Records
---
Amino acid sequence: MKKPRILIAKPGLDGHDRGAKVVARGLADAGFEVIYTGLHQTPEQIAEAAVQEDVDAVGLSILSGAHMTLFPRVMELLREKGAENIMVFGGGIIPTDDAVELKHLGVAEIFGPGTPIAEIVSFLEGRFKG
Amino acid sequence: MNKREWRELHYDPAPLRESDFTTISGEELEPLYTPEDVEGLEYERDLNYPGCYPYTRGIHPTMYRGRLWTMRQFSGFGTAEDTNQRYKFLLERGQTGLSVAFDMPTIMGRDSDDPLAEGEVGRCGVAIDSLQDMEILFRGIPLKDITTSMTINGPAAVLLAFYLCVGEKQGASFRELGGTIQNDILKEYIAQKSWIFPPRPSMRIITDILAFCSAEVPRWNTISISGYHIREAGSTAVQELAFTLADGFAYVEAGIAAGLDVDSFAPRLSFFFNSHLDFFEEIAKFRAARRIWARHMKEKYGAKDPRSWMLRFHTQTAGCSLTAQQPENNIVRTAFEALAAVLGGTQSLHTNSLDETWALPTEKAVQIALRTQQIIAYETGVANVVDPLGGSYFLEALTERMEREAEEYFRRIEEQGGVLACIENGFFQREIADAAYRYQMEVERGKKIVVGVNRFRDPEEALDIEILKIDPQVEKKQKERLTRLRAERSASEVERALEALKEGARGDANLMPLIIDCARAYCTEGEIISALKEVFGEYREKPIF
């Protein structure tokens, strides 16, 4: 079976990349194919990369408070490209109320500070390996 | 009996609880430290009296008997009006200095109406687009009576220009204004990642600021050489110490290479460290930092002015040590970290708020954070005696070891061609990412305990703290203000100032006076930075994880 492909992305102007990099490495160690966009990506660049790289899921990391703009924008662009099958999940500094709203909008899961990588791995395995 | 005998006879036979007894950075520790561990230490050479070289025990003879540290809470959100109100709230409650948190567009040199600013305006700091916003930010706060620290790097020269112009409009001369710009671009490439220009033109802007301020704004701290972000990005304590001081030496070398006398600018360099949870490791780090800086400045760079030898620093407690789970526990973590900073001899301190793993802090949360400092200062008694832990066998041995390990990093950095080369080859970024991942794995395996996260969890936990909401109208309001400004100011003045700046950037003029001219003409931050980008280009990092 082909390894699930995950794009880890840093949208917007936020430079806090510790979480994104730790998660990217943890997923790679757990057997996922991981692509990391690097910093300061526009939603357009991320959606484009997700389609180009034919990924199964996109993980967005946002610590700058712009999550209510950037998550919906990436999802909208994926839909426009006919790639709504690509799952979107994420993490960062995201208040509970906002996380609930994002999940209503179709974000699969928000993993906040303190989440073990093992939890993200088992979530993704449940979706893609089961 | 000596230590080895004690160990064999008394310690080794006794059962121990399960732990590897390492610091949070993974440093091995002995069970006990004794005079044998500090045998090589010579009091006057290695420690000496406070206020005396190499300043291990503190830079002032009186330390907190003379003056307490400055209580300076990093703060900013929404519009300049919102943040101005928060500053007044903090000053009324006994804060003694200001510290500006800018939003991401401001940090990245972009205006609020830039397409890349969408969703970011006023979110993680205050939105500042022009001198006009800065005037509002400090309305009713006399700048000649307070010092202000601004966490700004890529566009530091622009925000400094705005600040100086506000002071001028309030009737204060440049010489009367005191404060700090972070202006530490090296750590941006290494850890914080909010860069604009490539490293070499960035260093030119910095040396322009050093030269300008040493002549015109003598009370200004021109670079706050920062380990904070290196640590937050996941480094160990020794890496924070070593990479930060290596950056400091790189600025000194750049200043000297630009033809400046080291004593003309070094006294205005200051530092900014993280205070993490491992209590003694942190105190040792602060003390080692002072000693290393003093020794290098005197012996390697030939500085003659004792003020060039003294490492002054600001401290912020470790944001990355705070947990989203059981957030009230963060008050306790922050208090211990703050205490370590004080016992390490900090000059100023920011204490994080309990709610910062969720959002920017509420008034209530920030008040508790400030009160934590006031309790340490006024109730615990630790400010009565200078360097009260000096002479502890453990602390002195650890201070010495951290100095040695930092020196080892300096050697490795030097071997690879210096700090810029190590940024370009990814050395720092790799070292930090490796340390961050190693720590994460230790937490996941339960080797390092985080209360409420991997032990002592509360399965029923429901978050019941208040969360600060940023008014969703902020972005719209800010964009409208910018549109009005662009319509009202003199377009020809703006164009003239920006052209002069570009001309200066192409040659070797000092850019500061030209940027101040732009500020006076109400050029926006984004316009000034764009003009410089035309000449200097932009930096891109190769993504690695």
---
Amino acid sequence: MAELTALAKALVELDEEQVMELVKQKLDAGEPAMNIIKECNEGMAGIGKRFEDGVYFLSELIFSAEILQNVMAELEPHLKESDQKAESRGIVVLGTVKGDIHDIGKNIVATLLTGAGFEVVDLGVDVPTEAFVEKVKETGAKVLGMSALLSFTYPEMKTVIDALKDAGIRDKVTVIIGGAPCNEQVREFVGADYYAIDAVTGVNISKQVYG
Amino acid sequence: MEDKKKLFEERLKRYQGAIALAPVDRVPIAAGANYFAETYSGLTKQQFVYDSSKWMEADKKFVEDFPEVDALRSGRIWGPLHDIVGYNMYKLPGRDLPPDVQFQFIEGERMKADEYDLLISNPGQFLLERVLPRVFNELKEPGSMRAHVAFLKAGMAQMYLAGAMKQRALHLQNELGMPQPMVGVMLAPFDMLADGLRGLKGIMTDIHRRPDKVLEACDAIIPDMVNAALATADPLRRYPIFMPLHRGCHPFLSPKQFDTFYWPSLKKAMLMLIDAGYTIRAFLEGDWSPNWHHMRELPKGKVLCDIDGPGDIFKAKADFGDCQCIAGGLSDSLLILGTPDEIRERVRKLCEVVGRDGGFIMNGGCCIPYDAKPENYRAMIDATLEYGRYSDRTDFEIQCDPNPPAGWKPPKAGVITPWEVKKAELGHIYGDEELIKGPWEMFERMAYNWLWAWTW
């Protein structure tokens, strides 16, 4: 990876003031919003790396997502419609399965995926089976991530995967599960392709799938 | 009745003895929360949450079918009380969820980032004026008729619930010979902020943006939290006080953040409970392995630690098992998806390694999940009886004492209207002041403690 820009570096260091200051300077200087987002994404990738290396923990991931959200709010008025879809690495559909309303883990995954250049279609929490299937079909996503915090969701995750089979698209999509009650035993039961032990693992699997 | 008393004492001795790291006859079987017992009763989750008259029936059925169990506690949420105040931090089965989906906590921010000073300087006022109107839908218009009646009903319902819980505890003890695994509850001060007040996102950004305020608040709320925990604990000090430790796990906080923000106030609070003559049952949620060595800093044999599924219980035994009792070892997925043979094999290994030399209690990772297969639960019990035997008797002397240790002083009690204020308003007192002051202060303290029940 090339040397990080000052903005990306400030984000990696979680220097909130410096990040906001640099963003304002760049906007004032007429820099396109998309370039600024690109720099921020490099910063987010750096944060993911630090998490993998055991330097950063969830508090840093959550705080960086907060900073990024403030940056995006600043950039919003400067984004053109044509900017939105630019240079997506691929589509990932995400959601917390039916009955479960927890979303902290899923949101961290979404932030890191976005930072890594993916287009994230986040279906939210308590997502019905059909919604997963329809969205995968509609978007042609090659990765589906299902999140859960409660153990009663094991059969729900299996139901989604069975429905993907019934819809004839199971072999077109890689299914990743994650969340506290998940492990290899659960992955095998529900028939998912991968169990991601943490958010960064989920992002890395998505990168593999999209090459 | 006599044999129930004997049974009760045998079970309690075994449970208390294991916690104290003393020799016992076999590995106790004692989940903290036994959600499986609720499912096993045949009641829907809505019935369990709403109909307190069914609790004793459910306990009876469970204990009759699983008499080898050493302690039982199920069901802690009572829907009618939630409805009376319009408590909006939980989704309840049958009300906001299908009748057979478990209750769930709703993440959110109930204290604003700029309110730390209010919390620190006057927690009671802060809870009453800022937090409760946000978490009680019935308090949307404070001072209205509806709000007044909500408070009135809440006090009545709380007393009703206390009566039902007491009756249930006596039924468990006298009719079923069954102790409880824990009574009373306290959070870690950091979790009090993280769960119900600032929310996870709030607290995780606060430790970066305003670390000093977080630390100051954690310390400031300790006395109130300890008092509220003692008020709900077993008056006879037989059972541990429950401490569900949510956000101390890896990887929420780095070990350095844990040492800075989580542990110091938690340790102080735990020591205050231990000083008051209690043991603690701490649920180490998630993976605590980078942090659980701290349990060595607490008095030996006073803190039973539940190891959650993601934590490595064998490592826990090696890291601090000589200092504190450990419970757990069967993950949710094993109890729900596994087979009786797999359970047997796991229990054998647990008894041989973690149970060696005592200090071990058989349990799931914190709880027995709702959807555990009955045949797996049965296999867990049978295998524990087979592999978890140490001797044919427990000589441990039962710990049961209504009095705190000599010289113990409770933390300063929080009140809204101190006696001095009331006394000044009364002007001259004609008779015995103590007769008036005693009840006044008792109910002030009860009301004040109650305020702390609504922040997680």
